[in-house]
Design a protein that fits this description.
Blueprint (H helix, E strand, L loop, with lengths): L1 H20 L4 E5 L2 E8 L2 E5 L8 H16 L2 E7 L5 E7 L3
Antiparallel strand pairs: 1-2, 2-3, 3-5, 4-5
Length: 95
Amino acid sequence: MKTLRSALALLVATWGLAGCLSGEATEVSQDGFTFAVEVMGDTAVARNYHMGRLNFAKLEEAARAAIETASGCAVRTLAKRGEINTFDATLNCAG
């Protein structure tokens, strides 16, 4: 039963990631995590669908770096959204 639940959770996460990546999201791998990063002007959203235990501080650092890589801008603010492993950022872009 546990294996079935795990397989179902993985399938749902995969569908979610595929849906996210089908739009204007950029897939960025950083420090062992893969993020779908959407940049909209001076804001960005990074989503990671990692299952299981993880070090939140490392995930947050990796999200910041993934957003900076995808956007080419420095992250001014980064906040965890209520959704699992989702971060909202405001960007500081030169120019």
